[in-house]
Amino acid sequence: MDTGLAFTKGHGTRNDFVLLDDPDGILDLDAATVVALADRRGGIGGDGVIRVVRTRAAGIDAPADAPEWFMDYRNADGSLAEMCGNGVRVFAAHLRAAGHVDTDAFEIWTRAGLRTVDILARPRQDGADWTVRVGMGAPALAENGRRLSIDGHELIAYDVDMGNPHAVAFLPEGVHLDQLDLTRRPGIAPDPEGGTNMEFVQQRGDHHVAMRVFERGVGETDSCGTGVAAVAVAAAHRAADGSGRPWTVEVPGGTLQVARRGEEVILTGPARLVADGVFRG
């Protein structure tokens, strides 16, 4: 890292990432480097680090017909993650802005498998939002008795797999989302091997919820795209809603829309590329 490491900084509803453009897979990206990049005081700062690399050069086991580009996502603590819904949108905006793809509809490869991308709108000026729609795959929901504990409340949780794990709990009447203490990891029992992301949800109206999230390997973040998708899946299940109507999900960093396309969950929201630079840490 003595010569510096070129990066792009981006975010989706204030879930922020450091992107490293490494088409030919020459970077040796170890956990310590990820932690240094993501450090908000001594580094660039981010909820995660995304290496932008061709699938064939990524050193992963992928099928021969996998898409050209692989989203190599790392949590801020250096651990590998299967998927990141906000990260996919930022990754897609970067691919288009950097000229790595020349169409607004394409596929990418992730550790959770194939994801489809549609860029619905490009920014009219630097620093403005892209609008990106992502096919997030089919969810798996289970009611297995898992419970989350926070501020003296014990809440039944839904397990929702969006390519990565989530435990989704709905707050009872009289418990306010903005009063929860998420400065430390909430209790969870049983605690799944490998951990999980934890979402706390409050109903706002018809097909409208708000959430906060404690992300595995990160802590509380302003948004989590796979968490938003998981919450919408759990909310529809809880309401016995088979209408197919989209759900609006508020997060501290903004608002996202979740719809269904057959069995697949579709996530739509903003992505913003805010800076380019060189890290000399």
Q: Which properties best describe this structure?
A:
281 residues, mainly beta, Diaminopimelate Epimerase, Chain A, domain 1, 2 domains, 18-stranded mixed β-sheet, 18 strands
Write the layout of secondary structure elements.
Elements: E1 5-12, E2 15-21, H1 31-38, E3 48-54, E4 69-75, H2 85-97, E5 105-110, E6 113-121, E7 130-135, E8 140-142, E9 147-150, E10 153-161, E11 165-170, E12 187-189, E13 197-205, E14 208-215, E15 219-221, H3 225-238, E16 247-251, E17 254-261, E18 264-279
Parallel strand pairs: 2-3, 11-13, 14-16
Antiparallel strand pairs: 1-2, 1-18, 3-4, 5-6, 6-7, 7-18, 8-10, 9-10, 9-12, 10-11, 13-14, 14-15, 16-17, 17-18
Overview of the molecule:
It is globular and about 55 Å long. The chain starts with a strand and ends with a strand. It has an 18-stranded mixed sheet that branches. It is built from 3 helices and 18 strands. By secondary structure, the protein is mainly β. A hairpin with a 2-residue loop joins strand 16 (247-251) and strand 17 (254-261). The chain has helices at 31-38, 85-97, 225-238, and strands at 5-12, 15-21, 48-54, 69-75, 105-110, 113-121, 130-135, 140-142, 147-150, 153-161, 165-170, 187-189, 197-205, 208-215, 219-221, 247-251, 254-261, 264-279. The mean pLDDT is 96. It has 2 domains: 5-137 and 270-279, Diaminopimelate Epimerase, Chain A, domain 1; 140-262, Diaminopimelate Epimerase, Chain A, domain 1 (Roll), CATH 3.10.310.10.
